[in-house]
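$ run holo --ligand "heme C" --emit tokens
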Amino acid sequence: MILAYFFLGLLVALALFYGLRPFFAAPAPFPQSPRPEELRSEVEMLKSQASEAEGDERKRLLAHAVRLERELAELGSQIPAPRRLAPAPLALVVVAVALLGVGLWRSTVPRLPGETLVTSRNAARELLGLENAAKASNKAADWLAYANKAYDLQDFGRAVPAYIKVAELEPKNPVAVRRLGILLFMGGRTQQAVQVLEIATKAEPQVSEGWLFLGNAYFQLGQPQEAIRAWEGYLKAGGTAKSRVQGLIDTAKAQLTAPVASGQQVYLQKCAACHGAQAQGGIGPTLKGNPVVKVSAAVSEILSKGRGQMPAIQVSPQELKGLLEYLKGL
Ligand code: HEC
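-- output --
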């Protein structure tokens, strides 16, 4: 395959090179005349005439032939040396070939992000085959096969729409629901991931994958209790990463038993840098006496989404509770 492209590229390069050459050749200052071939044939003719002629006529013809031969010899030494390749057309050809090569490569070989090996190129081709089959039949099973292949290849950009297609055709397909939950989590949409993975683990409690990501998502949301429940589900379902998940469970348990920081501690830790230790303001506006902080829903919204120059700030539900109380008391 690569060889075929290489030869094709080479052919095009040659064609371009010879096609463009006349345009770049420096024009000869004078026409070359007489041409050596003409001289040579004239010499031949003179010699044959001389062999038939006699006396002075013969001498005259031979002398003429010798003169012409000398001229011919001089001409030979003047034959211009082959021209060097001009840099401009050469560069043009190289660029043209490179562009052509890249174009061919991109348009004909299905590629994956970061793909370099021949084996993954084969995988990409297989993926393309599955995609075409799914498009042709529009059956949930075919879309699922394609989606699973893309997921296994970590081509999540293709996996997501394919699983969505499965879910459209078969809204209760447990694999599609689970994988979409996992992909939501990986895409940073943790809240939605939790909702979807809850459904998936209810539908298929024996599949460990769903439990693992459900636990991760809860943990990221600062809900260690729920995370522990989900990770224990993973172990019960026979997940293979036992020691790692046990470690996660231990971490979450430690977090649960640690004393919950007071609202003021949370404030000093996470807000004071911008809003001042006494909430008097700084980079961020004054919070002391600010009516906004009396509205818990508004504060929660600002914390979870960020606002203007203020980034979103992660606080666990317990921390939030204390923090809101502290803010109200300002
Ligand atoms: C990195 C700096 C930074 C941190 C950390 C930060 N904030 Fe802010 N905060 C800002 C800025 C800047 C604004 C003004 C945003 C805007 O409206 O453009 C703001 C606005 C707010 C507002 C809205 C005030 C109003 O009058 O509209 C509230 C409430 C708030 N922050 C609460 C908090 C709390 C609670 C924390 C800690 C959990 C916190 N912020 C942490 C920078 C910060």
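-- notes --
The CA atoms of residues 197 and 214 lie 6 Å apart.
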